[in-house]
Amino acid sequence: MADDNKPPKRIELDGFSILKTEVTWGDFVTFLRDVGRAEDYTIDNGFTRAVTLPIISNDDPASPNYKHKPARSPNFQEAENYCLWLAEKTRLPFSLPSEAQWEYAARNRGQAIAFATDTGEVELDKYLQRPSYAIDPMQPVSGNVLIHSSLDVERRPVGSYPPSPLGLHDMTGNVAEWTKDWFRPGFDHLSTKNPVAIEPSREYAGKRVVRDLAGTGDHLGGSATVYARVGRELDNYLYGFRCVVNQPEPIKELP
Q1: Which of 13, 131, 165, 198 lies in the 20 to 30 Å Cα band around 64?
Q2: Contact call for residues 59 and 67 (beta carbons, < 8 A)
Q3: Helices (H) and strands (E) in the chain, counts
Q4: Considering the entire predicted model, what is its pTM?
Q5: Is 1-248 assigned to CATH 3.90.420.10?
Q6: How far apart are CA 108 and CA 123, in angstroms?
């Protein structure tokens, strides 16, 4: 892990806006239905994850499929497709964030902070700290972050915790997030202007960068910090995401 995010690299980014929360189940399912692919991710069609977390949304706050909980895309491609679909619907240049954009936002415009919380520190929510059969989805929120194993499908609705000073929620915790970069250790291969790894490496072909490992439950040895990163296969179904708008003018609300 330590070698994956070295050496530090000073970069320059053009202006962009980023969604203040992770994409929700409700919005993601709306997208899949609109493009006619919701049925692709069912048990009958071989999507085994649907046994524990079917890709449907509902209005029940006690359900893991509650519409305001974070989406977990069935693969990288559908996360990317969602942002492109949003671009088509809004006529704004939406995309998945580059790894550099994601980290810049999580670090409150590049500051030297460890956690993207309201205080810069971690105060763990006591939620999920019990056997799965005893979890009460209506348990009141405590602390300022949810860090728990990604094997447990339950999560808090997006925006449950106080935002970072930049106004962003859950960039530490809840679910880990896809970026659009192809993975390889370190940053020497990247440019200093709007860096993004657009070509897969031979050694790590088939892996994209995932950020916010606190969202996978990793919180020891620095792996929950905003600096931690990992490469994951494109068909991994554990991760959420948020989108960016690649233009310098601020986006206050969607059309």
Answers
A1: 165
A2: yes
A3: 3, 6
A4: 0.94
A5: no
A6: 19
